[in-house]
Design a protein that fits this description.
- The protein is of the alpha/beta class.
- It has one domain (4-230).
- The chain contains seven helices and ten strands.
- Helix 3 (58-73) packs across helix 4 (75-95).
- The model has no long low-confidence stretch (mean pLDDT 93).
Length: 233
């Protein structure tokens, strides 16, 4: 079973800037019977992009569930495959003259900095590669901002209807926060500059202390939970 993909509309955009991103799609939340998003809110679950694009097809959903079951039920085999694919992906990117990047939480929120195989996390095993993710975990974001994180792993906090109070403190600490807005993006949110996060997915290049504005997509267009914000509210 192949784990990594480059066939994702958002991560492909980085190739124009010389970055080649490989991502991992696991089944989100408890869809597989195992929880891959420990801090998911109701709004997050309802607006999840898991079914966007190719995710609409049942065979794609089944593949993501199979990958998730493999991770939880046959960890050794999963991690051996993952590390092998990361190594091959690094070589592929270098051959093309691109910088290799990895987003292992395309549709999940797993603490990859703590998940190890043969004593190493993916970031430790491939120190010259860039890893990045979005997270709704306050604990993970706090560790990232205090420097208790692999140097080649970047996190962007993701706002939901239930964790908004944490966003300004993270921004003041020079962390970045992704917020989904309805319609056009505001210039600022609560005094913090809003940048367009839909241009590409290279969050590790964003100016520190910025709001990463994302326009509502898919099921988020019908959100009534507060997950999607109106303008600069």
């Amino acid at each position: 079973m192949k784990l990594l993909t480059t066939n994702n509309a958002k991560i492909i955009k980085g190739e124009k800037k010389g970055y080649m991103t490989f991502g991992l799609h696991l089944a989100p939340s408890t869809l597989s019977g195992f929880n891959t998003c420990s801090c998911a809110s109701n709004g997050c679950k309802a607006a999840c992009l898991n079914t966007a694009g190719r995710g609409f097809y049942s065979k794609v959903q089944n593949a993501r569930i199979k990958k998730t079951l493999l991770f939880f039920q046959e960890r050794e085999a999963f991690m051996a495959t993952l590390f092998k694919e990361i190594g091959l992906a690094v070589n592929q990117a270098v051959r093309k003259g691109a910088i290799p990047c990895f987003r292992l939480n395309l549709t999940s929120d797993m603490p990859w900095e703590c998940i190890k195989w043969q004593g190493q996390s993916p970031m430790q095993a491939f120190p010259k590669a860039i890893f990045y993710d979005y997270t709704k975990s306050p604990q993970r974001m706090t560790r990232f901002l205090t420097g208790d994180f692999p140097k080649n792993y970047n996190l962007c906090f993701s706002r939901s209807e239930s964790n908004g109070v944490l966003c300004p403190p993270f921004l003041r600490s020079k962390g970045n926060v992704a917020i989904v807005f309805r319609g056009s993006l505001p210039a600022k949110w609560r005094g913090f500059k809003v940048i367009n996060g839909d241009i590409d997915d290279l969050r590790f290049l964003d100016r520190k202390g910025s709001v990463v504005g994302l326009k509502q997509k898919g099921r988020a267009r019908k959100d009534l939970t507060g997950f999607v914000l109106e303008g600069g509210v």
